[in-house]
Amino acid sequence: MITTPFTEQSTAADVISGIDLTGRRALVTGGSSGIGVETARALASAGADVTITSCSQAAADRVVAAIQTATGNVRVSSTLLDLADDASIDRLVADWDGPLHILVNNAGVMGFPERRLSAKGFELQFGTNHLGHFRLTNGLYPALRSAGGARIVSLSSRGHLRSPVMFDDLNFESRPYEPTMAYGQSKTANVLFAVGVSLNWASDRITANAVHPGTIASTNLARYMDPELLAQIKNAPFFKHRTVEQGASTSVLLAASPLLDGVTGRYFENCTEAEVVHPELGGGTLGAGVADYALDEENAKRLWALSEDTLVG
Description:
By secondary structure, the protein is α/β, with parallel strands linked by helices. It has one domain: NAD(P)-binding Rossmann-like Domain (Rossmann fold, 3-Layer(aba) Sandwich), CATH 3.40.50.720. The chain has helices at 12-16, 34-45, 57-71, 86-95, 124-139, 141-146, 179-200, 227-234, 244-247, 249-256, 297-309; strands spanning 25-28, 49-54, 76-80, 102-105, 151-155, 207-212, 267-269, 272-273, 276-277, 290-291. α2 (34-45) packs parallel to α3, α5 (124-139) runs parallel beside α7 and α7 packs across α11. It is globular. The protein starts with 11 loop residues before the first helix and ends with a helix.
């Protein structure tokens, strides 16, 4: 297991200190709020050319201006992106020019109280958190390959301990819809995607790792969740709440630190590789660790094939 000098108390600024990303290009999805802002700020502070994505141009403009002012780096920009909309994803891909050294798949949705489906008929958390990022990343594959050592960071969550990817009932058609299990399934998919990249793109010098950023009360990730359920989660005794600066630290570690050169297909939390655990289906105490099913290569291959089928049309 990989350890680093950093801990759960470390911030993104701590991790990026002394690292020079001049000449590197980075894309951070969901970069206009929460830990996406702090991730983008840290990468920009190290000299990277950073593009953030957002569903709101006004929000993106405010964040871009703030990061430029804080870091003195004018090579920070934004673009609109809706991960639930194939056309929006494809526009970003078509507009991207040149190599991409760092892709942080940070954006996500969580906890719809009632089952909602994407335009292609997938449960919307799975469709957005996984399939949207899968389409984006595959579209950007030529840019990642041309970078000559690109890194992908896939934002997961301890919520993945709630559920594996239920291949036989992805969309809750044969079982009651349960928001945290639907979210958990999507977050397991985010880990399996990193494993899939390690299996499929290693020869292109593209690495990918998944991260649990921690429980951060001040982000808007859970804006769709039932308030009572959200309060129960935030007050659970096993959660240690972190600041957004701390929450971004592991993402920045995976995106930029030379300590992670060549490392791929793993899951990190609190700036260290997580221990493999064996949760029961739906039982999840949501403690530390990464579920064995989330690192399973056969699951990763099955998910990759299913996801590739959605790229057509």
